[in-house]
């Protein structure tokens, strides 16, 4: 179910996962040369990956010092981020609902299956990435790069301090409710299922 990623996207995906599972701690500096050696690439793709993660808010550039892992959002900021993400996804699903076809539904069901596997195995860090991929499908389907960029920023910052995956099977049921509502062709029920899942 994973789309083909460019080299910088592959590197960004791995570093993002390392930040989520705290292999890289907040405040820790990342060195381009060390990352290039780790991924066996030149510094160009690493630089692109770091820039992407900085745009998402996971990293921050400090002039003449380097790139460090960002601090977690405050309670107030986190609350606002959740509202923003909910607004974006509500807008997106309302906009694309009537355009979803059988091929889309098949892909969505595959993404749901990935979420289920992660919930059953208890792999929270894998679940975070698969939850990201599930929701990303809908935002990408809308097809506006600016909205996708804003959304990915909210999603990444939420992931930095996510605790909702404590009840894994409940997380799966929330995603299953989204897919079931889409399958039934019930737009308002789908919107509500998205809103229930984003908190």
TrEMBL record:
The signal sequence is: none
Q: Provide the HTH gntR-type domain boundaries.
A: 5-72
Supply the InterPro entries for this chain.
GntR_C, TF_FadR/GntR_C, Tscrpt_reg_HTH_GntR, WH-like_DNA-bd_sf, WH_DNA-bd_sf
Q: Per UniProt, which keywords does this protein have?
A: DNA-binding, Transcription, Transcription regulation
Which GO-annotated molecular functions does the record name?
DNA binding; DNA-binding transcription factor activity
- Record keyword Cell inner membrane present: no
User: Record keywords: Transcription regulation included?
Assistant: yes
Question: Which Pfam families has this protein been placed in?
Answer: FCD, GntR
By its UniProt entry, which PANTHER family does this protein fall under? GLUCONATE OPERON TRANSCRIPTIONAL REPRESSOR, TRANSCRIPTIONAL REGULATOR, GNTR FAMILY
Q: What's the protein name?
A: HTH gntR-type domain-containing protein
Originating species:
marine sediment metagenome
